[in-house]
C-alpha cells in the first residue's frame, strides 16, 4: 500500500530539517515516502510527482524548501491533495525568504504553511497525522497518547529556580 504521507524536499540539504517530519511520523506509526523533488532543478520530476500523487495513493503532501521556495506552491498547483509547506532556514535570510515564498500564495491555490525550520517540520507531521486521524481511530489514539506524553514531560517549575 502507498504511504499516506509524501514528504518532498528541494535538496539533500533540506533533509536536516525535513527528517524531523519523518521522525515524527515514524513515532506516530504513520507510513511515509520521502523524495527529493526540486521545482527548479528537476521540474519534470516535480510535475510527474505532483500529477501522480493522488493516483499513487498519497493523501497528504509535506513539502519543504528554502530560498526561492516554489516547491510547495507548484505542488499545490498540480494536485488536489492538501499540501503543507515547511520553510527551510536559509543561510542568507534565516528562512524569511523561504517563509514568504511559501506563505504568500494567491487565492485559489492553498499551501498550509508552517513555521521556519524544525518546528515547522514537526508540526507539519502532526498536522498530517491529525487529518489522517479523522478517519483512523487507532492513529487518533496514538496521537492523543503522543500529546499526553508531551504534556506530562513539562515540569511545573524551571530546573535551577529557587
Ligand atoms: C532550494 O534551494 C532547496 O529547497 C534548498 O533549501 C535550497 C538550497 O539548495 P542546495 O543549494 O543546498 O542544494 O531549492
Automatic annotation (TrEMBL):
Catalytic reaction equation(s): 5-carboxyamino-1-(5-phospho-D-ribosyl)imidazole + H(+) = 5-amino-1-(5-phospho-D-ribosyl)imidazole-4-carboxylate
Entry-linked Pfam families: AIRC
EC code: 5.4.99.18
A Gene Ontology molecular function term of the record: lyase activity
Pathway membership: Purine metabolism; IMP biosynthesis via de novo pathway; 5-amino-1-(5-phospho-D-ribosyl)imidazole-4-carboxylate from 5-amino-1-(5-phospho-D-ribosyl)imidazole (N5-CAIR route): step 2/2
Any single biological process term in GO: 'de novo' IMP biosynthetic process
Enzyme class: isomerase
Keyword vocabulary terms for this entry: Isomerase, Lyase, Purine biosynthesis
Residue span(s) of domain PurE: 3-154
UniProt-annotated binding residues for substrate: 11, 14, 41
Family: Belongs to the AIR carboxylase family. Class I subfamily.
Cited function: Catalyzes the conversion of N5-carboxyaminoimidazole ribonucleotide (N5-CAIR) to 4-carboxy-5-aminoimidazole ribonucleotide (CAIR).
Protein name (record): N5-carboxyaminoimidazole ribonucleotide mutase
Amino acid at each position: 500500500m502507498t504511504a499516506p504521507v509524501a514528504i518532498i524536499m528541494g535538496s539533500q540539504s533540506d533533509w536536516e530539517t525535513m527528517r524531523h517530519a519523518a521522525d515524527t511520523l515514524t513515532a506516530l506509526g504513520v507510513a511515509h515516502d520521502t523524495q527529493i523533488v526540486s521545482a527548479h532543478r528537476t521540474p519534470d520530476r516535480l510535475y510527474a510527482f505532483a500529477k501522480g500523487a493522488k493516483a499513487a495513493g498519497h493523501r497528504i503532501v509535506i513539502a519543504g524548501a528554502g530560498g526561492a521556495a516554489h516547491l510547495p506552491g507548484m505542488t499545490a498547483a498540480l494536485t488536489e491533495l492538501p499540501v503543507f509547506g515547511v520553510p527551510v532556514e536559509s543561510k542568507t535570510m534565516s528562512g524569511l525568504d523561504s517563509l514568504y515564498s511559501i506563505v504568500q500564495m494567491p487565492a485559489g491555490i492553498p499551501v498550509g504553511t508552517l513555521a521556519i525550520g524544525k518546528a515547522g517540520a514537526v508540526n507539519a507531521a502532526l498536522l498530517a497525522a491529525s487529518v489522517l486521524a479523522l478517519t483512523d481511530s487507532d492513529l487518533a489514539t496514538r496521537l492523543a497518547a503522543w500529546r499526553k506524553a508531551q504534556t506530562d514531560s513539562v515540569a511545573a517549575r524551571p530546573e535551577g529556580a529557587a
